[in-house]
Amino acid sequence: MSTTVIKHVISRLHDLGIKDFFGVPGDFAFPIEDTVCENPVLRWIGNCNELNAAYAADGYARVHGMAALSTTFAVGELSALNGIAGSYAESLPVFHLVGMPSSKVIQSDVIVHHTLGDGNFTLFYDLAQKFSCAHAILTPENCVDEMERLISAALRYRKPVYIGLPTDYAEMQLEMRPPRKKILESHRETLSTVVDTILGKLKKAQQACLLPGIQIARYGLEKDVMKIIDKFNLPFSTMLMDKTALDEEHQNYIGIYNGHLLNHHVADYVESCDCIINVCAMNSDFNTGAFTANMDRKNIIYIMPESVQIDDHLYENVILKDVLQGLITCSHYDNKARITATLPQAAKLPEVAGSGKITADYIYSRWQNMLKPDDILIAETGTVSMGLGFALMPKGAKFHNQTLWGAIGWATPAAFGAALAAPEKRTILVTGEGSHQLTAQEISQFHRFNLKPIIFVLNNDGYLIERLLCKDGDIYYNDLAQWDYSKLPDALGCKDWFCTKVTSCEELEEAILKAESCETGAYIEVITDKYEASPLADKLHASIETLYAA
After folding, report:
1. pLDDT single digits (tens) 454-498
2. What stretch of H or E contains 459?
3. How far apart are CA 457 and CA 434, in angstroms?
């Protein structure tokens, strides 16, 4: 049985469950795009530019588990690189297919377009390796084995991989044969020692809790961690990056742990625990409340994707899923972990009766109250995510934010990708107008693919998060060109959408009710005062020296 290189690549991605391919067409990538478009079960998702395509693939991978992106050589892949880097930082497997010049051109010294004119055809391939967990330029000879290696790496590390496809090689025939596969397994004796040691720590603990990281969701292990929480009766909290890694309606959820900037009662509980099980959670600046978190390292058990650290000992070659299964199935644990202190209760943002001007307290409370089970909420980097991060999410609802990479403009195309991955669910996008200006053209894609999001554009007359973090908030570089945001959807083809601009609480209430019943996409521009900010955003201003001192 024979096939072509590109058909084999596309077929293997389809085997993984990928049916949508994001990208922008380009001449060196025609074999990729032709193969996708000629396949009746696949769909080409043409984006407005390559950066938007990468962000959309990122959003798609958050919901679907993985995504595929196609760009052309050099100019296309470099445009997408910021989005790819974000997926790398936040552990999202994106298969990046790059159409390259033919092997004959690469091996010659001719000067062609999309190059620096120096005859170097591997420069961009070399650059991309810094932002992928595996990479290869495929040939008819190496295609089968290399593709399996790339897939294995993407699923093992939950990071992007780079797949280079010279135009002539892409359409060459290859002979199918069984690929070489390597199975990743835990070291059995080490695994047994780790599980027993964790159980011993839990038995001795006077007060224990669990901190789940977002990688639990990346690896699809949410149910396993919930079984451990139920088995050992463990309270759990999440940091901002990890919000909704587990169900926030669970009785053992105590709320967001953000160091000592907010939710002091949660911080007091977590930091008084003598056994903290950290499952892949990251102690980054925004996760730890500008490094105000104060957990004693000797009380923390770090369970990571392929290792566990207990006290000063690092146990390697133990796989996350195996560790979780070992704890779930252990039969020699005869008591649930004790909770000796009063357990904090996760609370909703307090309801605020709004009237007149739209305040931060009112709008974040109102957004919280409109959320429904299984909603997909995309919150843009900046003050929006800091306000919504403390909203209590209904069962099955997911909160997505690019907490670590933090590229403004990510949210609009990421929301498109997320909505495309789960069109049966309601997608709500909340973005600031400054971020929105970077990628606003991607709202046209929602209508193109018959998606019906609810989009809020929070217009506070500039880059609010920058105003709060810099020395002089009113300095000119924080100002923006003035757009009529509520008119954008119509200009971009969303002719039947409900679009409006609101300046008061009463108008916002009416607009939300209309958006929820209009059966089309909805786009609401929300006007607030320039410095109207969520409590966390205000707190960060006071912590700026601590935040960047490291």
Report:
1. 999 999 999 998 998 888 999 999 999 999 999 999 999 999 999
2. strand 454-459
3. 9
